[in-house]
Amino acid sequence: MRKRSATVRVARWSALHPWRAVIGWFVFVVLCLGGGIAAGMNSATTEDFRVGEAGRAEALAAEGGVQLRPTEQVLIRAASGRQGRPGQQGQTGQPGRLDKAQAEAAVRDITARMKALPEVASVAAPVRSADGRVLRIQVELNGSEQEDQEHVPPLREQTAQVAKAHPDLVIEETGDASVSKGVDDQRNEDLKFSEAITLPITLITLAVVFGSVVMVGVPLLLAITSIAATMGLAMLASHLLPDTGVGMSMILLIGMAVGVDYTLFYLKRERDERARAGGRLTSEALVEAAAATAGRAIVVSGLAVIVSTTALYLARDVIFDSLATGTILVVAVAVASSVTVLPALLVMLGRRTERREAKRLAQGKPVRVYGEKGPGRAWSALLAPARKRPALTLCLSVLVMLGLALPALTMNLKNPARDSFSREIPAMKGYDRLLGDFPEQRVRHLVVVRAEASRVADVRRALTAMDRAAQADPLFSRPSGAPLLRSSEDGRTTTLELNAAHPTYSKKAEDSLAHVRETYLPATVGKLPGVETAVTGEVARGVDYVQHQNEKLPLVLGFLLLMTFGMTVYAFRSVVLGLLGVGLNLLSAASALGLLVLVFQGAWAEDLLSFESLGGISSRVPLFLFVILFGLSMDYQVFVVSRIREAALNGVPTRQAVLDGIAFSAKVVTSAAIVMVTVFASFVMLHILEMKQMGFVLAAAVLLDAFVIRVMILPAALLLLGRATWWPSGAIRRAEARAAAQDRTGQITGADGGGGWAGAQSNAYDPLRVQTDRRAQTDPHRARTAQ
Predict the structure, then answer these.
(1) By the 8 A CB rule, do 264 and 636 touch?
(2) Which of 25, 69, 79, 775 lies 20 to 30 A from 429 at CA?
(3) Which helix (H) or strand (E) holds 58?
(4) How far apart are CA 626 and CA 596, in angstroms?
(5) Is residue 198 a contact partner of residue 663, using CB atoms and an 8 Å limit?
(6) How far apart are CA 15 and CA 342, in angstroms?
């Protein structure tokens, strides 16, 4: 007898000691969660987000203490028109003229209150809008942008008190900190909404697959406990790789998907083994048999996801580090739960089934049969095109997928900024009103210059000249007054703020940055010897971030392709399958990206999906899609091809093994895809545009992968390749030769003559079944009568 794999040995121990395994699992979950809570979350700092020239500029400015700080803007306007509608006398929908005395009193009040707060670094003098109807008071906060949300509540409380004390005025607050807090609050509400949608659909899907409330609870129990354990581990891991706030979202997104999927595959295989055993095997033996097939596939699949996801670390970006860490941890924990505690739970449920069936036998009732005896009619019909005309099916399917991928050629990558946030956030409504009265507040470019302190006068003169040149450029705007120049206390660092009235993700905003970096800076400060210059700001960060990602994309994609190929060859000992897997993954990813561009880059779907188009795609989405999809698609690749290879190794001809393997795995793969698509699609209903795009593209990719790649393209390709599918391994060829020799000598028996899936499976675990049957014979209480 061959030595059992580690997966089988672990499953066997768990099956023989079910209560120990279950208790041990829950102790593990509690320890992980408790340890994480005790350690706390280590959040990323401003320094962790710095990339490119913008990051270098921020480092220079921070060193001199003249960096761009988070700001809040307090707007003061007359109360008339607050609730007014155009056309009504005295209420035109616009604020009335400010009463000078009331406005001055409100300004004094808000200035005194804000200056008294420890969170406030400075309060600027009021600035009047171009029409004179609105006053703006800029409040600069202490601390970094990552800490600004903590400063919002006391500021808003003071603003509310001032508004209450001046009922004839409309006084509101908006700004960086208010918007950031509003976005986070909205994200938390969105995640709760997503969970409320995902759980019922998952329950329904599992109920349809298993027809048992108890069996439905097992996948959900393991998925939820896996997520809980991972959250604790993620808190611990954040002390090595700081968390950016997206890691927990990824744990929920991926954890529910793969947690349910892995359990689903294992459960389905155990039920199929139970049906094939016909009552001859104990629950422990059935679990052990399932571990040898589905258990191994889960481990290989999980390892593929983990290895693929490590490619994100090559991007050298703190956000992708956080995404990768969350994904790797939750997949590892989900795999661990599937190969440790799941066998124990199945044995407990199996013994319950055995007692129930023994009672039915005693009453003279027939024993229930679990699992599928053959492929369903629906899937036989879906596979008919690939079976009858594989070449035509392959060509047409590939052409359809390539047609879907065509829009991806026009993809325009953008870095989503504040302008793209949902207008349901109160602070964003105030932000829109701020920009309506002070459009120059949209874009802030910060030019940073470091030189010897003795050169400060020269630097300031050069920056003043740059300011004059920029003001003559229609791309820039600034209220009347002196240039926004600041110098550090030691005189070594000087900054100039330039403003533009364009959306931060627009082409004009990017052009204004290019003018500063490529024209005005070299023509002024750049002529001074011995100075170091750089430009930052929200637009600069976005442009540099996209450029940084584009530079890393070939490295990440190359590593991803290599690892996917290597994992497939390792799993199936086939170079052909490795190349085919890489090609199919690229095809499904490209098609999903094409659909993403078609829906989100234009404006036609804005009302349908409740978003405001950036005219492009969030720069993080394509890279995230490739990495996650390549990992997740290995689930289907491993589980489908494993069944095909298993049949082929038992002598079934490759053509029959392909058709039967895909047909028999179709239901569970479809169910897993439905669960995964539900989880991903729920993110389309969130408010944050980037999360919408991620959810949409992953849902589209999984749908295409499950229903086009695995049903049309994969079977057609494998049928055309035939035995070449397994090259260079000779195991399949030798298995077919043995089967042919046995067939000639009449050694194969069975209802299907050994040519179909059932015959192959009857021979798949003979040593294990013989051993179990012998044990059952010596322990009649554990044996059951075969029907």
Answers:
(1) no
(2) 69
(3) helix 52-64
(4) 13
(5) no
(6) 9
- Phi–psi pair at 712, nearest 5 degrees: -105, -60
Q: Where are the beta strands (DSSP E) in 695-780?
A: none
- Please list, in sequence order, all residues whose beta carbon lies within 8 angstroms of the beta carbon of residue 606, skipping any fewer than 6 positions away: 612, 613
DSSP single-letter state for residue 725: G
Nearest in space to 551 (alpha carbons), one of 692, 445, 701, 413: 413
Q: Give the Cβ contact number of residue 77 at 10 Å.
A: 24
Look at 448 and 259; give whichever has higher pLDDT: 448
Handedness of CA 234, 239, 240, 246 (dihedral sign): positive
pLDDT of 349 above 90 = no
DSSP state of 79: S
Average confidence score pLDDT of the chain: 83
E strand or H helix at 489: none
Residue partners of 232: CB distance under 8 A and separation at least 6 = 29, 31, 32, 33, 34, 35, 36, 37
Provide the pLDDT for residue 762: 36
pTM above 0.85, yes or no: no
Distance CA 660, CA 391 (A): 19
pLDDT given for residue 457 in this prediction: 93
SS (H, E, C) 125-145: CCEECCCCCEEEEEEEECCCH
Burial of 752-773, coded b for 16+ CB within 10 Å and e otherwise, reads bebbbbbbbbbbbbeebbeebb
Residue 649 banded pLDDT, cuts 50, 70, 90: confident
Question: In sequence order, what are the beta bridge partners of 174?
Answer: 73
Average pLDDT over residues 512-537: 94
Quick check: 394 pLDDT over 50?
yes
Q: Which residue has the higher pLDDT, 40 or 612?
A: 40
* CA atoms of 290 and 10, how far apart (whole Å): 12
Distance CA 426, CA 430 (A): 7
- The dihedrals phi and psi of 728, each to the nearest 5 degrees, come to -95, 5
More confident position, 260 or 587: 587
Alpha-carbon radius of gyration of the chain: 32
Residue 185 has, within 13 A of its CA and on its CB side, a CA count of 16
Beta strands 532-536; 443-450: pairing state: antiparallel
Specify the pLDDT at position 214: 65
**761-774 mean pLDDT:** 39
> What is the pairing mode between strands 71-78 and 169-175?
antiparallel
The sign of the dihedral angle between the CA atoms of 188, 443, 449, 125 is: negative
Residue range 361-371, pLDDT digits in tens: 676 666 555 55
Q: What is d(CA 357, CA 275) in angstroms, rounded to the nearest whole number?
A: 13
Instruction: Check if the beta carbon of residue 643 is closer than 8 Å to that of residue 661.
Output: yes
Question: Which pair of structure tokens corresponds to residue 35?
Answer: 């340890």
Residues 235/195, Cβ–Cβ less than 8 Å: no
Which of the 8 DSSP states describes residue 68?
Answer: P
Number of residues that make up the chain: 787
* Residue found under tokens 């234009």: 602
Instruction: Pull the structure tokens for residue 477.
Output: 């705007």
Burial environment of residue 611 by CB neighbours within 10 A (0 to 12, 13 to 18, 19 or more): buried
Dihedral angle, C-alpha 771, 772, 775, 781, nearest 10 °: -170
